[in-house]
Amino acid sequence: MEREDIEKAALEHAMNETGLDYIGEVAYENGFVSGAEWMIDALGKMQPTEVWKEITKRARVRSSDDK
User: Fold this and answer.
1) What would the pLDDT profile of 1-40 be if each residue is shown by its tens digit?
2) What pTM was computed for the model?
3) CB contact set of 24 (below 8 Å; sequence gap of 6+)
4) Euclidean distance between CA atoms 43 and 65, whole angstroms
5) Beta carbons within 10 angstroms of residue 46's beta carbon
């Protein structure tokens, strides 16, 4: 995923899903991009098997939060 794709996804989500005003959307977008960059960097330092374990762990946490 390129930075441009991340920024596009952040903007689309901020505008369509959050219901925030402009300032809130910008803050949300910046946080989304920073989080995506952190995650890409963190995963890049792991072995491939560790990446899969981390992704599935985070998916389970998110899934239980949705209930």
Assistant:
1) 677 888 888 888 788 877 778 888 888 888 888 888 888 8
2) 0.56
3) 14, 18
4) 22
5) 12
- For residue 58, the tally of other CB atoms under 10 A from its CB is 11
Q: At what angle do helices 22-44 and 48-65 cross, to 10 degrees?
A: 140
| Spatial distance between the Cα atoms of 42 and 22, rounded to a whole number of angstroms | 30
The answer to whether residues 14 and 25 touch, using CB atoms and an 8 Å cutoff, is: yes
How many whole angstroms separate alpha carbon 5 and alpha carbon 22? Answer: 21
Are residues 29 and 7 in contact, defined by beta-carbon separation less than 8 angstroms?
A: yes
Instruction: For 1-67, list the strands marked E by DSSP.
Output: none
